[in-house]
Prior knowledge:
Elements: E1 4-11, H1 15-26, E2 31-34, E3 52-55, H2 57-65, H3 69-73, E4 78-80, E5 82-87, E6 92-96, E7 106-110, H4 111-123, E8 128-131, E9 136-140, E10 147-150, E11 155-163, H5 170-174, E12 179-195, E13 202-208, E14 211-217, E15 222-229, H6 231-239, H7 242-252, E16 260-276, E17 280-281, E18 284-286, E19 292-293, H8 301-321, H9 329-357, H10 362-377, H11 379-390
Helix pairs in contact: 1-4, 1-8, 8-9
Amino acid sequence: MTGAYTDIIIAGGGMVGAALACALAERDFTVTLLERREPRETWPADSYDIRVSAISHASRNIFANLQAWPGMVKRRITPYEHMLVWESGGAQVHFDAADIGEPNLGHIIENRVIQIALWEQMQSLNNIELLCPASISGLNLSEESPAVVLNDGSHRTASLIVAADGGRSSLRELAGIPTGGWDYDQTAVVCTVQAERGNQSTCWQRFMPNGPLAWLPMDDDLFSIVWSTTPEQAQELMDMPADDFDSALTNASEERLGALRLMGERGAFPLRLQHAKKYIKPGLALVGDAAHVIHPLAGQGVNLGLLDMAELVDVLGRARDRNQPLGALQTLRRYERARKGENIAMQGSMDLFKRTFSSSLPPLKLLRNLGMGLTERLPPVKNLLIRNAAGTLGNTPTLAKKAP
């Protein structure tokens, strides 16, 4: 295959793909980004995206280092200072940003806000070629000059191709990389609600037998909720009249936030765990959901993907400095070694958490209440959990470090 050449081709212009394009372009790589459709640039001021992300300190640093953070701040972000996790009739754990000397534990940001801010920054960089709408119909992998065939029949070659095209990655399938995992037999119902007692700058999460229910704070008295439950109950929640849904949600919160009222639409998304057997092939790397899909109970999905892309940027920068081929397996294995183990560990811990807290067996209920009670009484353990969730422990990629 021959055709127009660029250093790196990225398939997928979502949050991770757009961030990767910005990071590489700012390091003087030439980038071609392929995306099926452009994100919306504007929306009514009183509307809210039902898809939000809990952005860690590491991810905030990435956005700041890419100069995309101001674009998010000017639209809408919500810092939160506390997190309260509880089980009905059992123990609870309270996390406080002050305990680790930080002004907040993270930020809740609508996905559309993140994406458009990254696209604005991406479009300001001269060495990014944006092809949209575009999709890939063919793939030829090699360490020296991997290439793709686009849906219009044109060919593009590069030193490296990156799949950032989501959990149903067509590029991963074209590369013949298998995935493992399983369906959770759970569906997440998501929407925006108004709380009588305000959001109190707190993320709330209650564990129930059918799955966790999370309230993620937004403006003033608003929350984005993620209610993970059985497909049957999820369908009931989707079909309920708004008043009945309000009552069900208020009861599920044990009225800790006062009366809750639905604002706008509801959405439902089946949940599964998925992990690519390989992150790399000659001339190809997978990042974000193309490599791994995780249960949303800890809100770590996009944060893991952003750490993937930041690690890949470090690896490619070092390879270029050493005149090593970007698409060589020797180069890409450094990325895979750095990220695969951490991602699998996070997936495993979240899966264990989900299964432990979804069981109504008395011994397990006793065990988890003891665990939560012990965690609440041991500040060093709580602080370690907070810092781990913030993404600031261990070997942090350059972009994820706070700018000096």
